[in-house]
Structure formats: C-alpha cells, structure tokens
C-alpha cells in the first residue's frame, strides 16, 4: 500500500504567501520561500505552489519565486497558475518543479493536458479542479460544478465528467478543491472527494477545509484520497506537518514517517 501524502499548499499573490476563505478575503501571511523550507524540514511529502492570480491577470507565473522555492526543498514540487502552453510548462520544470498543475487553462483548452503528458509524461501533469456544490440539473448531474479563474467564473460543467475526461486526456493526478469548504477549517468535502476517487483510477488529492489532523485522516480513509492538501492548519501554526502525520499514523494511515 502506498503511503498517504501530506502536501502543504502555498497560494502566492504578487510573490507573497496569501490565504483566504472560499477564495475571497486573501491576506498576506508571509514569505513562500521560508514556509516551503519549514514544511520540508517538518516532513512534508510534496509542496504545491499556486500563483493564484496569474490566470485571471493573463500573465505568466513568477519564475523567480519558483526557482527560490526549488532551491530550498528536496521533495516533489508542483507548480500552477497561468500555465497554458507546453513552452510555459517547460520553463516551470526548468525552474525546478517536478510537476505542472493546470486548472483554468485546461478547462479552456483541454488539449494542453495531452500535449503536456506527451511532452513530459503523465506523471508530470496534475489537473487542479475548483468545484462548487450546486443544485442537480441535466448539465450537472453530480451536483458539483467546475469553476475557473480562482472562483470567478462558473462553467456549467459537471465535475465528475471533467475528472474522467482529464484522465482520458493523460493527466497523472487530480487535485480536487472544494470552494465551499476552502479555508473554513470544518473538514474536507468528503462526498465530493469520494465521488471523484470512484470515478477515476488516478491518484486524487483532497483539498479545501482542513482544520485539524482528524480531517486529514478522514480525507484519506473515508474520502479515499491519496493525499491531503493543507494550508490554514499549518500556515497559522495550529499544527505542524509532523503533528498531522503523527496523528494519521496513530489512526492507522500509512505515512512516510520522519520522527
């Protein structure tokens, strides 16, 4: 059985670490380079870095910040935000990332998933999915809708159908973020997580809502996720990465232990 991963998420705006609730009210909370190093030393399994306004602002990612983070950590490093072409993917990989995360660009141009997988391998392509719970309708039979541009544009697309299409196009992993749960610290949206896990054979990262280590254990047990993404729970010092992994291990989850 593969170890369950704990993955801190660095949302970056204008080169600074930021955090909001349900994609609004973001505040500056520090230096992403310093935080990446700290989380690496605490035992994080991977780091995910999102330039959260790059797509909405129609610009490329801040490569200098990516390079400075990559110099400080020696674990898999996934980078997303404003990446819409294979040359842009190559730039980010050359800056030190191991994986590329595409979200809005993939919804607007699904071929970027297959083009990226062909160029760099499926293992390098992570598709981020920002998902909003909505009333069930013909277009959205699961009751979960895809939203892009950092929560700014609803697409009328069913999240489960999109997850399956991403797999068919060659994605190597999905990161499923519940907009409703994001930043609330009330726990992951387990129904959404389990639904995506059941729909695909890819590793699924649960994202949005972690407020205590119990939530992370629930994500990888009841939710079936391969990994739990964390932000507020560690950014504000409530728990360390080591605390979270120790709790998960006590509950019976297999994790990579560094203590």
UniProtKB/TrEMBL annotation:
<comment type="similarity">
    <text>Belongs to the HisA/HisF family.</text>
</comment>
<dbReference type="Pfam" id="PF00977">
    <property type="entry name" value="His_biosynth"/>
</dbReference>
<comment type="subunit">
    <text>Heterodimer of HisH and HisF.</text>
</comment>
<keyword id="KW-0963">Cytoplasm</keyword>
<dbReference type="GO" id="GO:0016829">
    <property type="term" value="F:lyase activity"/>
</dbReference>
<comment type="pathway">
    <text>Amino-acid biosynthesis; L-histidine biosynthesis; L-histidine from 5-phospho-alpha-D-ribose 1-diphosphate: step 5/9.</text>
</comment>
<dbReference type="InterPro" id="IPR013785">
    <property type="entry name" value="Aldolase_TIM"/>
</dbReference>
<protein>
    <recommendedName>
        <fullName>Imidazole glycerol phosphate synthase subunit HisF</fullName>
        <ecNumber>4.3.2.10</ecNumber>
    </recommendedName>
</protein>
<feature type="active site">
    <location>
        <position position="11"/>
    </location>
</feature>
<dbReference type="InterPro" id="IPR006062">
    <property type="entry name" value="His_biosynth"/>
</dbReference>
<comment type="function">
    <text>IGPS catalyzes the conversion of PRFAR and glutamine to IGP, AICAR and glutamate. The HisF subunit catalyzes the cyclization activity that produces IGP and AICAR from PRFAR using the ammonia provided by the HisH subunit.</text>
</comment>
<dbReference type="GO" id="GO:0000107">
    <property type="term" value="F:imidazoleglycerol-phosphate synthase activity"/>
</dbReference>
<keyword id="KW-0456">Lyase</keyword>
<dbReference type="InterPro" id="IPR004651">
    <property type="entry name" value="HisF"/>
</dbReference>
<feature type="active site">
    <location>
        <position position="130"/>
    </location>
</feature>
<dbReference type="InterPro" id="IPR011060">
    <property type="entry name" value="RibuloseP-bd_barrel"/>
</dbReference>
<keyword id="KW-0368">Histidine biosynthesis</keyword>
<dbReference type="InterPro" id="IPR050064">
    <property type="entry name" value="IGPS_HisA/HisF"/>
</dbReference>
<dbReference type="GO" id="GO:0005737">
    <property type="term" value="C:cytoplasm"/>
</dbReference>
<keyword id="KW-0028">Amino-acid biosynthesis</keyword>
<dbReference type="GO" id="GO:0000105">
    <property type="term" value="P:L-histidine biosynthetic process"/>
</dbReference>
């Amino acid at each position: 059985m593969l170890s369950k991963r704990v993955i801190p998420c660095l949302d970056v705006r204008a080169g600074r670490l930021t955090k909001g609730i349900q994609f609004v009210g973001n505040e500056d909370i520090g230096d992403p380079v310093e935080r990446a190093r700290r989380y690496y030393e605490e035992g994080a399994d991977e780091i995910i870095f999102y330039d959260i306004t790059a797509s909405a602002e129609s610009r490329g990612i801040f490569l200098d910040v990516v390079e400075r983070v990559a110099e400080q950590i020696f674990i898999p490093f996934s980078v997303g935000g404003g990446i819409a072409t294979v040359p842009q993917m190559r730039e980010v990989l050359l800056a030190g990332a191991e994986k590329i995360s595409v979200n809005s660009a993939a919804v607007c141009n699904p071929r970027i998933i297959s083009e990226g997988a062909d160029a760099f391998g499926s293992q390098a392509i992570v598709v981020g999915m920002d998902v909003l719970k909505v009333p069930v309708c013909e277009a959205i039979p699961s009751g979960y809708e895809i939203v892009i541009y950092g929560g700014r544009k609803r697409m009328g697309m069913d999240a489960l159908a999109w997850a399956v299409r991403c797999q068919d196009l060659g994605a190597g992993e999905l990161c499923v973020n519940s907009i409703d749960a994001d930043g609330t610290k009330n726990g992951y949206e387990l129904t959404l997580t389990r639904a995506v896990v059941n729909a695909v054979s890819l590793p699924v990262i649960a994202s949005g809502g972690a407020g205590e280590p119990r939530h992370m254990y629930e994500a990888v047990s009841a939710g079936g996720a391969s990994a739990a993404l964390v932000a507020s729970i560690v950014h504000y010092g409530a728990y360390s990465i080591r605390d979270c992994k120790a709790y998960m291990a006590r509950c019976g989850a297999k994790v990579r232990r560094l203590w």
